[in-house]
Amino acid sequence: MTKIFEILGKFDTESDCHKLLYAPHPLPLKYREGRVYKIEFTGDEAALDAFVSRVLIDSISQTAQTGGAPAFDKAAFVLEYGMKGAALDLEKEMILNYFRSMPNPGFEITKLVLRTRIYVFGEGAEPSQFVRDIVNPAIHTHEVLKAA
User: Fold this and answer.
1) Which helix (H) or strand (E) is 98 found in, with range?
2) Which among 69, 61, 55, 49 has a CA at the least distance from the CA of 6?
3) Between 129 and 147, where is the model more confident?
4) Would you state the pLDDT for residue 134?
5) Total domains in the fold of the chain
6) Model's pTM, two decimal places?
7) Cα atoms in the 13 Å half-sphere on the side-chain side of 137
8) 136 CB contacts (<8 Å, ≥6 apart)?
9) Which residues are CB-contacts of 41 (< 8 A; sequence separation ≥ 6)?
10) Which among 54, 58, 95, 104 is least surrounded, fewest beta carbons within 10 Å?
11) 108 pairs with which residues across the strands?
12) What is the average per-residue pLDDT within 105-122?
């Protein structure tokens, strides 16, 4: 089975997109960011949910949604990117190492994919400059999604 979790900051607000870009953008665009964990697993789904709640989510400052659909439907577009399979992803390795150290987790992770989602808000927003400035084609894969 596969389950997708998106972790978002409870207290995050839309920020100026100029923080993300090398060159100023002519439009006053805003963005929000989320972290997506796609977990393929076998075993007890409730045990997986408990693991995610305990290990990946800070209950004070973060929320999680499941299912994989973009969290913000008013975004002009969503840039989702992550490490290529052959690239070293330290966060992924640490999560898997922690999982392997558990004596009886109740489930088995067969595949873990981590991605960052950037939601861009504003009329006339186009993804080309964001892809160019954020995605490193040597180490990242990416996808541009239309918000719901």
Assistant:
1) helix 90-101
2) 69
3) 129
4) 96
5) 1
6) 0.93
7) 3
8) none
9) 1, 2, 3, 48, 107, 108, 109, 110
10) 104
11) 42
12) 96
**Three-class SS of 94-147:** HHHHHHHHCCCCCEEEEEEEEEEEEEEECCCCCCHHHHHHHCCCCCEEEEEECC
Which residue is it, tokens 């088995």? 108
Q: How many residues are listed for the chain in this entry?
A: 148
Q: Which two tokens stand for residue 54?
A: 């305990």
Q: What is the CA radius of gyration of the chain?
A: 16
Question: How many whole angstroms separate alpha carbon 68 and alpha carbon 65?
Answer: 8
**What is the domain range of residue 95?**
2-145
Q: Could you identify the residue written with the tokens 């839309």?
A: 14
DSSP secondary structure code for residue 139 in this structure: T
Spatial distance between the Cα atoms of 57 and 73, rounded to a whole number of angstroms: 23
Angle of helix 45-55 versus helix 90-101 axis, rounded to 10: 120
